[in-house]
Amino acid sequence: MAHIHRVQIYYEDTDHSGVVYHANYLKYFERAREHLLGVSELVRLWEEQGIGFVVYQCRLKFREGATHGQTIEIRTTIKQGSPYRAVFTQQVWQPEGKGWMVDGEVELCCVDRENKLVKLPETVQALIAEQLKA
Fold first, then answer.
1. pLDDT tens digits for 31-48?
2. Out of 13, 15, 103, 112, which one is annotated catalytic?
3. Strand 117-118, strand 3-8: pairing
4. Known catalytic residue at 15
5. What's the predicted TM-score (pTM) here?
């Protein structure tokens, strides 16, 4: 089951044509992943274990742009790509469910305080397992 995070589109999010500037979708996806993983858990992982997330790769496909005043939904699912990578499938949807507007996939890796690759934390692996059951 997808995690849903709603985003209000403000004037500052748009370009000269009134459509969301393409790079802002990466910010919306980041916010949705943060809510899915849990802000307090991300803080705890960094403060207690020195583990942080970095983007390994991402892909975006655009079908339709969101516009000023809209509220969109970011739908996110997560799976494990390897012991070191989490793969997030993320889509921007109109709240009415009329179809997706932007489709993306973002792969994250975990690193320690020295930026060395480390395995995904147990809490993240448990979240992935939970998502796969849903």
1. 999 999 999 999 999 999
2. 15
3. unpaired
4. yes
5. 0.93
